[in-house]
Design goal:
The complex is a heterodimer of chains A (356) and B (142). By secondary structure, chain A is α+β, with helices and mostly antiparallel strands. Chain A contains 8 helices and 18 strands. The radius of gyration of chain A is 20 Å and the shape is globular. Chain B has 2 domains: 97 residues, no CATH class; 31 residues, no CATH class. Chain B is built from 6 helices and no strands. Classes of the chains: A alpha+beta (356), B mainly alpha (142).
Chain lengths: 356, 142
């Protein structure tokens, strides 16, 4: 059993534990906090894991500050989950994206909650960037789908997405080294329960910056009303830069109470420029998913070019080593100031396909 | 950019805290310099106030020492421009600190540096990394 302390990287630890089949124990979860113990969204993540696995045991002490988790087998299947409003659907989807391919059955998950929030990757970017990134690993793109049925802006949410993911027997190793040159920028500007004009204002201010670098910028504006628009007014802009080699870099900004659509547009564009400046074949938010799936690959070398590592990624690399004994080789490429990360896969195969 | 190159051993930054053996990695983590270390003796018996307000600051990535830092794969940037401060600090701290370094996209020099990342830029092989090589004549980035 692996032991950890604190609530940090709770999701990483649970995902790694579930995939590796190794039990974990976490102590001192917010032990010094005014409200000690697990939060609602963390309990919700545990419930989600319970739904897609079979035979897991979860023990939590009275104050909620200690957790023992013994993972079960990933089953998949059709599930419905209410993600609550503390964290957005993206928090849960990022975990599902890594787990679902290794299930017994294809996953069809209906998730309800907040679709776009500042803390997590929005469902738009998961749809347009995370899922296409999975195809490098040999996950069947045809059956990989994320449908945004209803928008749900913070704080009340009310959104709904349907995530479908096929199973794989084993992943393919990847070689993502050529980042190419950015050839076009696409985006989605959405508005719910507000004047649709806000979308155009976001687009205009984002274009003001982006068009100085590249003419091919198209941002789709989406206005939700009525039943599909969730419970709160909100707006956000997500941007994706696509390169000549097909790599995708993304950034987004979500409007908060009192923020101006122009500022959100400019901020999203600036963040995208920052991601482009960093280089790499995937953006910062995608690093974790890519590296985890690389570590789970067959016993073959996978390589990827990254920009700057985020603290989240660094922590994930440590967890990958602890859970899977996979050590990444990370070195700077002085040519372009990017990082090259490579590893020998753990030879992980789908548990449900193994003879029991 | 040069500072980034100088920073040699990523392996040690990443795996160092693990190799030093402690499961409780609160002390040794690479980027922990700035925001961490909240658990001093003085705070004994005092509930640490990391409610709604402090949460966001911690997410920026400075506080690797915080046992209860909020988790997010996203990169949080304070959009106020602080490139200079960020670059300097990054020399001392880990990659975490570097994340807050932002560029001023209205600056022609900054724009010139990114220009070749686009298809509209220079396609020659040298185009990638010619911050020094390119003369002033070619430096028209605006």
């Amino acid at each position: 059993m692996l032991r950890f302390r604190g609530s940090r990287y709770f999701r990483q630890r649970l995902v790694c534990s579930t995939l590796s089949g190794r039990a974990i124990r976490i102590d001192d979860i917010r032990a010094l906090d005014e409200r000690p113990g697990l939060r609602e969204f963390e309990a919700s993540l545990l419930r989600l894991l319970e739904k897609i696995t079979n035979g897991c045991t979860i023990e939590i002490n009275e104050t909620g500050t200690s957790l023992r988790y013994k993972p079960g087998f990933i089953v998949g299947g059709t599930i419905t989950h209410d993600c609550g409003t503390a964290r957005s659907i993206g928090y849960f989807l990022e975990a599902l994206v890594c787990l679902a391919p290794f299930g017994k059955k294809a996953l069809a998950a209906t998730l309800r909650g907040i679709t776009n929030a500042e803390e997590d990757l929005s469902v738009d970017l998961i749809r347009t960037v995370t899922l296409p990134n999975l195809k490098h690993f040999g996950i069947d793109e045809e059956n990989l789908e994320l449908k945004i049925a209803k928008r749900g802006a913070p704080p009340e949410g009310g959104g709904e997405v349907i995530f479908k993911c096929p199973v794989v027997k084993q992943l393919r190793p990847i070689q993502l080294l050529d980042e190419g040159k950015i050839k076009r920028i696409r985006g989605v500007a959405y508005v719910t329960r507000m004047s649709p004009q806000a979308a155009n204002r976001m687009v205009d201010s984002a274009r003001a910056l982006l068009n100085k670098f590249i003419p091919d910028v198209y941002i789709y504006t989406d206005h939700y009303k009525g039943n599909d628009s969730g419970r709160s007014p909100g707006f956000a802009l997500s941007l994706v830069a696509e390169s000549t080699t097909g790599t995708l870099l993304c950034a987004e900004k979500v409007g908060e109470a009192g923020s101006m659509p122009e500022d959100i547009g400019t901020a999203a564009a600036r963040l995208l420029m920052e991601e482009i400046m960093k280089g790499g074949c995937v953006d910062t938010s995608a690093q974790g998913t890519m590296l985890l799936l690389m570590a789970l690959g067959p016993e073959d070398v996978s390589k990827i070019r990254l920009g700057k590592l985020s603290p989240y990624t660094v922590e994930l690399l440590r967890h990958i080593r602890q859970f899977f004994s996979v050590t990444f080789k990370v070195k700077v490429d002085p040519e372009s100031d990017t990082l090259l990360a490579s590893c020998l896969g753990a030879g992980f195969t789908n548990m449900s396909r193994r003879v029991m | 950019a040069k500072r980034f190159r100088r920073r040699a051993n990523f392996m040690d930054i990443i795996y160092g805290p693990l190799l030093r053996g402690a499961d409780d990695r609160s002390g040794g983590a690479g980027g922990g310099g700035g925001g961490g270390g909240g658990d001093s003796e003085d705070e004994f018996f005092k509930p640490a106030k990391r409610g709604a307000g402090a949460g966001r600051a911690a997410k920026g990535g400075g506080g690797e020492g915080d046992l209860d830092v909020e988790e997010s794969s996203k990169w949080f940037a304070d959009l106020t421009l602080e490139e200079e401060a960020g670059e300097e600090a990054a020399g001392e701290r880990g990659p975490a600190a570097r994340c807050t370094a932002l560029h001023d996209w209205d600056d022609p020099e900054v724009r010139r540096r990114i220009r070749n990342k686009f298809v509209t830029g220079d396609w020659s092989k040298r185009g990638e990394d010619d911050e020094e090589g390119e003369g002033e004549a070619g430096a028209d980035g605006a």
